[in-house]
C-alpha cells in the first residue's frame, strides 16, 4: 500500500481539485480547496455539518460550478467526465426525492443510461449488469419495489448498485452511512473496499468516525478548506479532530477561563 499523500510515480491523480472556491451568496462553502485523490484507494472525507462536503462532491460532479479554481477528473473537465460515465454518485439522502415513482431496478438501470444512447433501450447486457449489481448489494429480492419503500440502508445500497452497474471508475458517496443499519454499513464498506482493490477511486464522506479505520486508506479533514490529508490514524488524533469540528476555539477560551469570550464565540457561531 502506498503511503497517504504519495501518489505512485507516473500515475496522475484520478481527481485533482485546485484552489476551488464556491460561494452561495454570502456563504463561502469552499474557500480554496486543493486536493488530489488517488485511484485504487478509499479516501474518507470528514467534516462537520456545513463544512462543504456535499458542495465539494457537486463541484467534482460538475453540478456546481466553482467561482474560481479548477477540477479535473482523469485530466478531463467534470461535466465531460460525467457525460462519459466516468463518475458514479451516491447522493446524500436529503438530495433525493424518495417519492419519485421509480423501482429499485429503475434506479440501478440509470447507471446504464450513458451506454444506451438517446433511445434508452436496455439490451441484454444492461439487464445482466443491473442484475449483477443488485446481487452484489444483496437487493435482488427488492428489485420491483418503489425506491422510497426501502429502509435507509437499502436505499443507499440501491444507489451503490447504480454506481456498480455504471462501471464508473470514480465513485463519490455522500454520507452513505447516515441513517443506515449495521448490515448495510458492513455491506457498503466491503463493496467499497472491493471496488478500490479493483483499481477504482472511491471518495466517501462520513461523520461516522468509527467506520473510518475499516473503510478508508486515507482521510481528508474538511472545514471549507483541507485541514489535513493523510493517514486515518493521524486524522483521528484528537487535536486534528478538534480543529476540524471547530472545538479548538472552545478549548482555547476555556483554558483562558473567560466565559465572556466563550459566550461571544458561541453567539457568533450561532448567528453565522
Ligand atoms: P456539508 O455537506 O458538509 O454539510 P454543504 O456543502 O452542504 O456542507 O454546505 C456548505 C455550506 O454551504 C453550508 O453553510 C450550507 O448551508 C451552504 N449551502 C449549501 N448548499 C447551499 C445552497 N444550495 N444555497 C445556499 N447555501 C448552501
Ligand atoms: Mg452534506
From TrEMBL:
Keyword Transport listed: yes
Ranges in coiled-coil conformation: none
Tagged with keyword Calcium: no
SMART domains: AAA (SM00382)
InterPro entries: AAA+_ATPase (IPR003593), ABC_transporter-like_ATP-bd (IPR003439), ABC_transporter-like_CS (IPR017871), Metal_Ion_Import_ABC (IPR050153), P-loop_NTPase (IPR027417)
Pfam families attached to this UniProt entry: ABC_tran
CDD domains reported for this sequence: ABC_Metallic_Cations
Domain annotation ABC transporter: ranges: 15-249
GO molecular function annotations of the record: ATP binding
Record's keyword terms, sorted: ATP-binding, Nucleotide-binding, Transport
PANTHER family attached to this UniProt entry: IRON TRANSPORT SYSTEM ATP-BINDING PROTEIN HI_0361-RELATED, METAL TRANSPORT SYSTEM ATP-BINDING PROTEIN TM_0124-RELATED
UniProt record similarity statement: Belongs to the ABC transporter superfamily.
Name of the molecule in the record: Metal ABC transporter ATP-binding protein
Species the sequence originates in: Promicromonospora alba
Amino acid at each position: 500500500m502506498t503511503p497517504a499523500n504519495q501518489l505512485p510515480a507516473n500515475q496522475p491523480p484520478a481527481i485533482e481539485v485546485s484552489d476551488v472556491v464556491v460561494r452561495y451568496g454570502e456563504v463561502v462553502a469552499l474557500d480554496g480547496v486543493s486536493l488530489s485523490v488517488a485511484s485504487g484507494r478509499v479516501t474518507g472525507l470528514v467534516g462537520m455539518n456545513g463544512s462543504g462536503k456535499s458542495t465539494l462532491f457537486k463541484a467534482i460532479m460538475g453540478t456546481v460550478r466553482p467561482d474560481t479554481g479548477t477540477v479535473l477528473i482523469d485530466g478531463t473537465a467534470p461535466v465531460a467526465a460525467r457525460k462519459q460515465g466516468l463518475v458514479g454518485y451516491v447522493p446524500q439522502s436529503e438530495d433525493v426525492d424518495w417519492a419519485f415513482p421509480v423501482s429499485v431496478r429503475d434506479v440501478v438501470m440509470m447507471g446504464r443510461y450513458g451506454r444506451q444512447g438517446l433511445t434508452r433501450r436496455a439490451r441484454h447486457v444492461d439487464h445482466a449488469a443491473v442484475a449483477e449489481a443488485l446481487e452484489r448489494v444483496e437487493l435482488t429480492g427488492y428489485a420491483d419495489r418503489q425506491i422510497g419503500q426501502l429502509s435507509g440502508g437499502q436505499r443507499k445500497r440501491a444507489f451503490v448498485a447504480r454506481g456498480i452497474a455504471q462501471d464508473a471508475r470514480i465513485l463519490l458517496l455522500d454520507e452513505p452511512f447516515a441513517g443506515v443499519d449495521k448490515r448495510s454499513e458492513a455491506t457498503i464498506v466491503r463493496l467499497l473496499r472491493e471496488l478500490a482493490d479493483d483499481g477504482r477511486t472511491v471518495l466517501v464522506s462520513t461523520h461516522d468516525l468509527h467506520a473510518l479505520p475499516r473503510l478508508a486508506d486515507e482521510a481528508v479533514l474538511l472545514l471549507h478548506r483541507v485541514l489535513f490529508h493523510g493517514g486515518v490514524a493521524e486524522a483521528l488524533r484528537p487535536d486534528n479532530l478538534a480543529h476540524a469540528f471547530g472545538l479548538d476555539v472552545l478549548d482555547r477560551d476555556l483554558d483562558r477561563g473567560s466565559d465572556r469570550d466563550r459566550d461571544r464565540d458561541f453567539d457568533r457561531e450561532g448567528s453565522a
